[in-house]
Design a protein that fits this description.
By secondary structure, the chain is an alpha/beta fold. Helices cover 35% and strands 22% of the residues. Pfam families: CoA_binding, Ligase_CoA.
């Protein structure tokens, strides 16, 4: 089993013919993902041949791509200025899962397309500013390296792309049902809580790793949700313990005000909910190994 993405996922790529789109479409294809089309209005009707002999058709719109291929996932590699219109187009077409890799999208644009998608009620958005998600051995939608870990029974949800990769590599001997990089922007589509709910419902996920970072209150809210609704063991890590107070850090969402949003506050909230929190990614991975050994 997996969450959101599986063997039946048929992926299209909005912005496939750009440099990032081409590079990562090649990587998705190499990992066994069923990439069935690209979208670029200026190149509609053409085809792109990738290494390995796979030829992918290019469509003018998301709706045309869905009708022709049965696609149920779209990955967005569109530049920030055009990302909002790309998302709205996918939502209007009824795309079930939309993975927005693009970083640097204006927060107002994200707020508007997130609200639009919520009101339509048909599209789950992951991101923006995220690495996407992977169900190892089944499908890979985004930029997560497919060869760092295989299928297994851990669920992973993370705000940070690089920490997603590190945790997958550290726990590669156990493997993952699905790893989801939700993105670090102040406004994102799918949250920690959405993933926790899905992993709780997935019969083949036995334990969950949750990676957060300083700024906002997403981890505190996730802790409250875990306390009420999650029966599976959760191990956590919060990036930013050594961040100097008042300094702007990498992600736009990593804004700390007072004691709210600090790594320590998040750690305390998670531990109060029964989550074991590591001080480093490696210590967090070791805590998960101990959890798996005890099951």
């Amino acid at each position: 089993m997996a969450i959101f993405l599986n063997n039946d996922s048929k992926v299209i790529v909005q912005g496939m013919t750009g440099s990032e789109g081409m590079k990562h479409t090649q990587r998705m294809l190499a990992s066994g993902t069923a990439v069935v089309g690209g979208v670029n209005p200026r190149k509609a009707g053409t085809e792109v041949e990738f290494e390995g002999g796979t030829t992918v058709p290019v469509f003018g719109t998301v709706a045309e791509a869905m009708e022709a291929t049965g696609a149920n996932v779209s990955v967005v590699f569109v530049p920030p200025a055009f990302a909002k219109s790309a998302v709205v187009e996918a939502v209007d077409a009824g795309m079930p899962l939309l993975v927005v890799i693009t970083e640097g999208i204006a927060v107002r644009d994200t707020a508007e397309f997130w609200a639009y998608a919520r009101d339509k009620g048909t599209t789950r958005i992951i991101g923006p500013n995220c690495p996407g998600l992977i169900s190892p051995g089944q499908s890979n939608a985004g930029i997560i390296p497919a060869d760092i870990a295989g299928p297994g029974k851990i669920g992973l949800v993370s705000k940070s792309g690089t920490l997603t990769y590190q945790m997958m590599y550290e726990l590669r001997e156990i493997g993952f049902s699905t790893a989801v990089g939700i993105g670090g922007d102040p406004i994102i589509g799918t949250t920690h809580i959405d993933c926790l709910e899905a992993f709780e419902a997935d019969p083949e996920t036995v334990a969950i790793v949750m990676i957060g970072e300083i700024g906002g209150d997403a981890e505190e809210r996730a802790a409250a949700y875990i306390q009420e609704h999650v029966t599976k063991p959760v191990v956590g890590y919060v990036a930013g313990f050594t961040a100097p107070e008042g300094k702007t850090m990498g992600h736009a969402g990593a804004i700390v005000s007072g004691s709210s949003g600090t790594a320590q506050a998040k750690k305390e909230a998670l531990e109060a909910a029964g989550v074991k929190v590591g001080k480093t990614p490696s210590e967090t991975a070791q805590l998960m190994r101990e959890v798996i050994a005890s099951l």
